[in-house]
């Protein structure tokens, strides 16, 4: 029979994302509501290995729902990838009387949790927190909505100056393996072209499209480039290439970088995080383990972590079609 869960730990791991604090708050308050003890683990798995724990109560998470980043800090921990590191982490959890943990993070964090669960039969639950929205088993990850709204706001501003000067801008957005940010923010901001890792449009098509834009009377253009794009040139090389082949264009580059990971979470991300935190704690208390909480058709669902870490969510083909139509 599964051991009764009386104390749950919560940690954030991997790249941070806006809304992680709302998820921490939700886990802590759900524990308080259900009269379960809760401890926070600082600095992700590194803090687990070092026993960097702090008891939490409902008041410990006052005034954080609106804050970006993570109050628990985050880290990418190499030591947790080793059996010795995980053994140290397990010893710390046992010493602190922790019966289960909730990890808020992405693929790498979940893989660590799954291995840990397999090695020590220790109950774990994942909550997807990443701006990339690339995790299988959920239509939305915490932080994605905030990130695309941030990107759209910035592109709107760049468009102002682009059109004043009749310029072409290449704007690089995050998305190492996937183009969800690029595609959604690109459609939302009315980009001329969107270059994503899933689709290699090719340099010829890019030049053709830019020629068509000029011919049709567009004075300025915005091209969104996901950082993991496969066209074979980075944004600066793309600028040089276009200026060489289409000298009519005055080109500028803007790399948005880590500003996409910051800022106050949107209402959507706060609500999503609050719902997922409740579900994660309740699922653990029902005896479920090694799952990730997700959302589909507005219902919360559980997906085995072993499934959630298999690759990345594909981009929405329909949205690619919409984008193609909008750029005519
Ligand atoms: O995982 C989210 C992500 O934002 C990626 O899109 C990006 O490539 C990466 O994190 C950057 O990570 P770091 O902060 O470690 O440089």
User: What best-fitting shape do the alpha-carbon axes yield?
Assistant: elongated
List unreliable stretches of 5+ residues: none
How many angstroms does the end-to-end distance come to? Answer: 62 Å
Number of strands: 11
SS field, number of helical segments? 11
Active site: 132 (proton acceptor)
Subunit structure: Homotetramer.
Binding site for ADP: 25-29, 159, 190-192, 218-220
Pathway: Carbohydrate degradation; glycolysis; D-glyceraldehyde 3-phosphate and glycerone phosphate from D-glucose: step 3/4
Description:
There is one protein chain. The protein is an alpha/beta fold. It has two domains: 7-143 and 265-308, Rossmann fold, CATH 3.40.50.450; 145-261, Phosphofructokinase domain (Rossmann fold). It has eleven helices and eleven strands. The chain has helices at 20-33, 44-50, 83-95, 107-120, 144-164, 180-189, 203-215, 235-245, 267-285, 305-308, 317-326; strands at residues 7-12, 37-41, 53-56, 100-105, 124-128, 168-173, 193-195, 221-226, 251-255, 291-296, 299-304. The strands form two sheets. It has a seven-stranded mixed sheet, sandwiched between helices. The chain has a four-stranded parallel sheet with strand order 7-8-6-9, with helices on both faces. Helix 4 links the parallel strand 4 (100-105) and strand 5. The longest helix has 21 residues, at 144-164. The mean pLDDT is 96. It binds 6-O-phosphono-beta-D-fructofuranose (F6P). Residues 15, 106, 130-132, 174-176, 227, 261 line the site of 6-O-phosphono-beta-D-fructofuranose.
């Amino acid at each position: 029979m599964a051991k009764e869960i009386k104390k749950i730990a919560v940690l954030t791991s991997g790249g941070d994302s806006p809304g992680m604090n709302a998820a921490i708050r939700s886990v802590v308050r759900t524990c308080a509501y259900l009269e379960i003890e809760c401890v926070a683990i600082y600095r992700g798995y590194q803090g687990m290995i070092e026993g960097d724990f702090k008891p939490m109560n409902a008041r410990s998470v006052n005034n954080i729902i609106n804050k970006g980043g993570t109050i628990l800090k985050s880290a990418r921990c190499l030591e947790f990838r080793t059996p010795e590191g995980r053994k140290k982490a397990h010893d710390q959890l046992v010493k602190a009387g922790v019966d289960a943990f909730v990890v808020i993070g992405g693929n790498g964090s979940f893989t660590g949790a799954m291995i840990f669960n397999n090695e020590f039969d220790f109950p774990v639950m994942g909550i997807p927190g990443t701006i990339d929205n690339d995790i299988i088993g959920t239509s939305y990850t915490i932080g994605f909505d905030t990130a695309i709204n941030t990107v759209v706001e910035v592109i709107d501003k760049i468009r102002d100056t682009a059109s004043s000067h009749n310029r072409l801008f290449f704007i690089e957005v995050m998305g190492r393996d996937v183009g969800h940010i690029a595609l959604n923010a690109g459609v939302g901001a009315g980009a001329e072209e969107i270059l994503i890792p899933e689709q290699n449009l090719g340099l010829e098509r890019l030049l053709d499209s830019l020629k068509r834009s000029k011919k049709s009377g567009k004075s300025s253009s915005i091209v969104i480039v996901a950082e993991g794009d496969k066209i074979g040139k980075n944004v600066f090389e793309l600028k040089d290439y276009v200026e060489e082949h289409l000298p009519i264009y005055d080109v500028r580059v803007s790399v948005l970088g880590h500003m996409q990971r910051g800022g106050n979470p949107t209402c959507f991300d706060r609500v999503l995080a609050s719902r997922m935190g409740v579900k994660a704690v309740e699922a653990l208390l029902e005896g479920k383990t090694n799952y990730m909480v997700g959302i589909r058709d507005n219902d919360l669902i559980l997906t085995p972590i072993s499934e959630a870490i298999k690759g990345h969510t594909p981009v929405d083909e329909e949205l690619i079609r919409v984008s193609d139509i909008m750029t005519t």
